[in-house]
Write a structure and sequence with these properties.
The complex is a heterodimer.
Chain A lengths: L6 H8 L3 H9 L3 H23 L2 H17 L10 H18 L21 H17 L3 H12 L4 H8 L3 H18 L1 H6 L1
Chain B lengths: L4 H9 L4 H13 L1 H17 L12 H39 L13 H8 L9 H21 L1
Helix pairs in contact in B: 1-3, 2-3
Classes of the chains: A mainly alpha, B mainly alpha.
Chain lengths: ~190, ~150
């Protein structure tokens, strides 16, 4: 048993682990849910935004992800890292969203191959980012989610396989195709820069 | 032997163990084709990295807690409603079953041997055989009754 003044005990009290918070949530402690939301909401919104391209949709997906987490608290078992498990919820919601008919069209394709270069470097940079966003949005859903997790969330291939439920070889294939497609479509920007 | 695209991706993402990374980098130094492939991937990797996301400042905690609270309340009401419905169904089934016409089994009065012996006045130990006359007279009376009914 840890002594009352044990520093490790204080740290545990100050920052309970995610599985510990899930256990508390299963016992009805809503404060545990609040801590989990504060800790992981940025991750959920970031992934959902990079996948969908819309903040309002990303917020909806993040909120639904935490409600699913709340519903699953009683049956939650620590079989993988909490973050991987939570990524999987977000990925499923993103893919569900992609199956629905689009409410709004994708943003217009920027004229990044224009012959006259913009004078302002900041403007040029913004156009480059818009091109990146547009081309990522144009990827097939599975390639897109694999790319977002790999390039922006910095998950390795095995972690992406766990988060998506796909095989590692499938993830590798998706990533290679996604990067190849993006390289081809963003080539003009790459050459100019 | 030249690395495949997956290995080059792992190199870019910093996922390779040190020994494999060093081996690959020495290969890139010697192989212009792979160096070109790596440079292309690196350029795309860097370009994607320009897309930085600034999260909106609002906090979702309040909205999520409220939604979870509503869901919990709704679940409790559903649970109560389910129990109430089950009780109503059980009560209805019980009431219906109670009103259903049934053929009651005839009641049989069980009489002990001693009682029967007492009724007919049979006392085997006494040696008084007149009690058998009583039995015979009862049976004869019953037979007459049946014959009259049949007529």
């Amino acid at each position: 048993m840890l002594a009352r003044n044990d520093p490790s005990a204080r740290v545990e009290d100050a920052a309970p682990s995610d599985p510990e918070l899930m256990r508390r949530l299963a016992h009805g402690e809503m404060n545990a849910l609040a801590i989990l939301v504060k800790r992981h909401q940025d991750l959920a919104r970031r992934v959902a935004y990079r996948f969908t391209g819309h903040w309002d949709v990303a917020d909806d997906i993040a909120q639904e992800a935490f409600l699913r987490l709340y519903r699953a608290a009683e049956s939650y078992k620590l079989t993988a890292a909490f973050s991987t498990w939570f990524y999987r919820i977000i990925v499923n919601l993103c893919l569900d969203h992609a199956k629905r008919p689009r409410l709004a069209p994708l943003p217009d394709k920027p004229a990044f191959a224009a012959s006259v270069p913009p004078p302002d470097q900041a403007l040029r940079r913004q156009e480059c980012i818009d091109a990146v966003r547009h081309e990522i949005a144009a990827l097939p859903e599975r390639q897109r989610i694999a790319l977002v997790l790999h390039r922006f969330e910095r998950l390795d291939h095995a972690q992406i396989a766990q988060a998506t439920g796909w095989s590692e070889s499938a993830v590798e294939s998706l990533l290679v195709r996604a990067y190849a497609q993006l390289h081809q479509r963003l080539q003009s920007w790459v050459k100019e820069s | 032997m030249c690395p495949d695209d997956t290995t080059l991706l792992r190199l870019l993402a910093g996922e390779l163990p040190d020994a494999q990374r060093d081996f690959l980098q020495s290969h890139l130094a010697q192989c212009s084709v792979c160096r070109q492939r790596h440079a292309s991937l690196q350029a795309t990797w860097d370009q994607l990295g320009q897309w930085q996301v600034t999260l909106p400042s609002h906090d979702l905690t309040g909205a999520i807690l409220a939604a979870a609270g509503r869901e919990s309340l709704r679940y409790r009401w559903y649970a109560r409603g389910g129990i109430a419905a089950a009780l109503l169904v059980a009560a209805g089934v019980g009431w219906t079953a109670g009103r259903w016409p049934t053929h009651a089994a005839p009641t049989v009065q069980v009489v002990s041997t001693d009682e029967l012996a007492e009724q007919v006045g049979l006392d085997a130990l006494s040696g008084d055989l007149s009690a058998f006359d009583n039995v015979l007279s009862i049976h004869a009376a019953q037979d007459n009754t049946v014959q009259e009914d049949q007529l």
